[in-house]
Amino acid sequence: MIRTPLRPLARILEARQKGENPDAIERENTRIRHEQMRDSSRQRAEGRLLVLGVFFFCAFAVVGARMGVMATTDPTEPRAAAPGSVISATRADIVDRNGNLLATNFETHALYAQPHHMIDPERAAKKLMKVFPDLDEERLIRDFTGKRKFLWIRKKISPEQMQAVHEIGEPGLLFAPRDMRLYPNGTLAAHIMGGASFGKEGVHGAEVIGVAGVEKYFDTYLRDPANGNKPLELSLDMTVQAASERILYGGMKLMNAKGATSVLMDIHTGEVISAVSLPSFDPNDRPHVAVKGDASDSPLFNRSVQGVYELGSVFKIFAAAQAIDLGLVNADTVIDTSGPMKVGGFKIGEFNGKNYGKQSVTGIIVHSSNRGSGRLALQIGSERQQAFLKSLGFFEPTPFEIVEASGGQPLLPKRWEELSSVTISYGHGLSSSPMHLAAGYAAIANGGLKVLPTLVKQNGPKMGERLMSERAAADARMMLRKVVTEGTASFGEVPGYHVGGKTGTADKPGPRGGYLEDKVINTFASIFPITDPKYVLILTLDEPVETSGEKPRRTAGWTAVPVAAEMIRRIAPLLGLRPTVEPDSVAGITLSSSN
Fold first, then answer.
1. Residue 136 belongs to a domain
2. Residue 37 included in any domain
């Protein structure tokens, strides 16, 4: 800033020439300078006041907005900051193939105590006993009056229980928010769902983790916030699953069976539409794992993947299909099934000592001849038989997406000799699960292509390598159809749906080796409709016995087959399959015309 002199020389000289007082010029310039300084100070002060006013306006606006937000939200108790990781309770829903809810989260509370904040611990313990009668009153009083400063009382409580505890009025009884896993359909698909429990826990939240079934297998996906809580879509159809469970339970009781299982699979995609294991449980209240006795006695035991048994004559179709595929025989090739037949020093017999004589390959399957299947196996040879069964998936656990499936390891013979080849051809000497069998029959049903069972909804066919020729698969399906129309599965016919299948009755192995007397595992492996295959249904009963006749009957034709037929009759319409109606004879009908 350039300042003007108070006594400029030019004006002083001019004033002196005119006889004026030069001091007046200095006083005038001083006045003007002071006025300029005053105006500058005023402008600076006004600017500062403006900035300060804007600041205060913004501050009051922020405070007012925050107060408005707080006034419109629910009040919550402030939380004390504490070090440690944040517990995430986020978990995605699980739905069936049609979007129906199978599992979701439900807001609830846990109950905990801080005894050092209690006013009357003994009164609190007695009041709690009225709300939770199963608690130990003596232990509660001991915990409340001891040195403990924190203890959980209940990990999950209902709204009614929460209100009852609140009315006790004890400041040392507090509630912790929880997200628990809820299965709205109860026992439906319990073995598939598995169940969930709490992982990390705190008074402000708890981590929900899967403990079994699909919940544990897909635990990482279900807990990942990056998925945007997108539900996990399963291949199950809740309606078909419910109908299957109801029918299988009725059949199990009717046939006096210890347990039962069924698997319904789409032969083109490998999707498992329903998988039932009985007895069952409620995943909302999952029972504890049994530590004693036979694992199969526990309701947690999933028979569809963990039930590894010799499944009997249902394996005979694999021997026939492979022999036809190798060009060793055709469906009409005649084979002598007469005895005696010895392999490795052991006699190979037929059911009830029957002798079927000379039979075609089709007749061997229709009459379920052990010796006929054994002679086909001898032609195939051990190495080729092993390779074929391995390609069908009978050497490893199924890749089914529940954690229990990994425990379903098939039991193979230590030394695969001629005797093993013969017995395995009719379902003895190799133990597998119904899920393995479903995958094997699916390859026959879809024309010879490998398919893997899956629990995840697919967008289209997911078939793999070719395992047998289309001709061999077609001949095998024709044989399975004749088993229903002419053979051991006559009770399996369902009008309009052309069922084909094979029965299997296998002696049940004992816990210490050998076989149990009068106790069997019965299986019916079916394909429907056999004329245009869509689905495979495997149904197995554990220790069934049909008692409507004079003598008890334990074969699959009398036990598993009628239950499977009823299941197909009920679920086929639910699957969108229209029955094929065969026209009645027109004999005796007279056509006439009218004017």
1. yes
2. no
Range of the domain at 118: 94-233
* Tokens coding 433: 């699960």
Say if CB 287 and CB 281 are below 8 A apart: yes
Q: Are 127 and 184 members of one domain?
A: yes
Specify the length of the chain in residues.
595
Q: What global pTM score does this model have?
A: 0.80
Look-up: residue for tokens 């069976």?
257
Does residue 582 form part of some domain? Answer: no
The pLDDT tens digits of the residues spanning 180-213 come to: 899 999 999 999 999 998 888 777 777 889 999 9
In a domain, 283, yes or no: yes
Residues 6 or more apart in contact with residue 42 via CB below 8 angstroms: none
Look at 52-61, 401-410, 558-567 and tell me which has the smallest mean pLDDT: 52-61
**What stretch of H or E contains 112?**
strand 101-113
Q: Which pLDDT band holds residue 4 (cuts at 50, 70, 90)?
A: low
Compute the distance between CA of residue 319 and CA of residue 317 in angstroms, rounded to an integer. 5
CA dist 277 to 304, 350, 477, Å?
6, 31, 27
Q: Measuring CA to CA, which residue among 120, 123, 121, 112 is closest to residue 150?
A: 112
Name every residue whose Cβ is closer than 8 Å to that of residue 162 and which is 6 or more positions away in sequence. Answer: 109, 111, 175
Same domain, 282 and 371: yes
Q: Quick one: 430 and 549 in the same domain?
A: yes
One domain for residues 411 and 458 = yes
Q: Does residue 143 contact residue 197 with C-beta atoms inside 8 Å?
A: no
What angle do helix axes 470-486 and 316-325 make, rounded to 10 degrees? Answer: 140
The β-bridge relationship of strands 232-233 and 334-336 is unpaired
CA distance 186 to 314: 34
Q: How confident is the model at residue 78 (pLDDT cuts 50, 70, 90)?
A: very low
Could you say which of 233, 250, 274 is where a domain stops? 233
Partner residues linked to 520 by β-bridges: 507
Label residue 280 by pLDDT band (50, 70, 90): very high
Count of domains for the chain: 2
Amino acid at 227: N
Give residue 40's pLDDT band: very low, low, confident or very high (50, 70, 90): confident
CATH number of residue 423's parent domain:
3.40.710.10
Residue whose tokens read 């047998």: 468
Peptide bond into 397 cis (omega under 30): no
DSSP character for 208?
Answer: E
